[in-house]
């Protein structure tokens, strides 16, 4: 049985000092290896194709080609890497667009080293991650700008799956959902996988966006208390 190699990472930021800082942090871990660094989105697109990283740490505001456009190009390719957006601003207008472009999550640049490493491992493991301090407020703000549209295939979900979807949209982890619903962790994981498949969603990030955009969760409210059932 072979042991999987370290996560291959591509660091993208237009500030050299930031690239060096992230590279030093990530390369210090036995399960991570930075295989490349880019100073703009155009370089990121090229290096992602050449180096085939597992995770791309993507800045948003960059010259030549921005992080949103680069994320869209990278994630639309076959066998695409996961993209973790790193932003300076907790209400950056571009973060929401980056999630819709295919990012698997976002994290603030002032996160602790431990939080950054955890985020990379979560995203590298195939899960999605959203900065809990800002996610609900951010997505609710932008979702409120558009008219709610009932999600297609929502009738394919069982009542329990709809309940789990609403709790996912509130930012709860599988463990927290399990505790709230008095279910086993593996049961919750199965429900999440099933609802993502039925709704044709890539990951939890898309599920959160769908829940807000469809009006299933009331924009601007704490999703734990502001849930609208359909």
CATH fourth-tier homologous superfamily of the largest domain: Response regulator
Which percent range fits the helix content? 40-55%
Span between N and C termini?
48 Å
Question: Helix/strand/pairing class, anyone?
Answer: alpha/beta
**Low-confidence sequence ranges:** 221-230
Count of alpha and pi helical runs: 10
Query: How many β-strand runs?
Result: 6
User: Mind describing the biggest β-sheet?
Assistant: 6 strands, parallel
- The number of domains is 2
| CATH topology grouping of the largest domain | Rossmann fold
Short description:
46% of the residues lie in helices and 13% in strands. It is an alpha/beta fold. It folds into two domains: 7-131, Rossmann fold (3-Layer(aba) Sandwich); 148-213, Orthogonal Bundle (Arc Repressor Mutant, subunit A).
Give a verbal description of the structure:
- This protein has 230 residues and is α/β, with parallel strands linked by helices.
- It is built from ten helices and six strands.
- The chain folds into two domains: 125 residues, 3-Layer(aba) Sandwich (Rossmann fold); 66 residues, Arc Repressor Mutant, subunit A.
- It has a six-stranded parallel sheet with strand order 2-1-3-4-5-6, sandwiched between helices.
- The chain is globular.
Summarize this structure as a short list of keywords or feature phrases.
alpha/beta; Rossmann fold; 46% helix; Arc Repressor Mutant, subunit A; 2 domains; six-stranded parallel β-sheet
């Amino acid at each position: 049985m072979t042991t999987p190699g370290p996560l291959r990472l591509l660091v993208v930021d237009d500030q050299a000092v930031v690239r060096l800082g992230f590279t030093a942090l990530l390369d210090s871990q036995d399960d991570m290896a930075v295989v490349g660094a880019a100073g703009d989105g155009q370089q990121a697109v090229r290096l992602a194709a050449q180096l085939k990283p597992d995770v791309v740490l993507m800045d948003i505001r960059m010259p030549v080609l921005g992080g949103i456009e680069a994320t869209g190009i990278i994630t639309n390719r076959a066998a695409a890497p996961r993209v973790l957006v790193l932003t300076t601003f907790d209400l950056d207008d571009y973060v929401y667009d980056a999630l819709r472009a295919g990012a698997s999550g976002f994290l603030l640049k002032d996160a602790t080293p431990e939080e950054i490493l955890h985020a990379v491992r979560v995203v590298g493991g195939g899960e999605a991650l959203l900065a809990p301090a800002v996610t609900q407020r951010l997505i609710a703000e932008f979702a409120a700008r558009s008219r709610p549209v009932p999600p297609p295939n929502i009738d394919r979900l069982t009542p329990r799956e709809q309940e789990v979807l609403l709790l996912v949209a509130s930012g709860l982890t599988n463990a927290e959902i399990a505790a709230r619903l008095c279910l086993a962790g593996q049961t919750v994981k199965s429900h999440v996988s099933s609802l993502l498949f039925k709704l044709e969603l890539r990951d939890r990030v898309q599920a959160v966006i769908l829940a807000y955009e469809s009006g299933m969760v009331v924009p601007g409210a704490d999703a734990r208390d502001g849930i609208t059932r359909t």
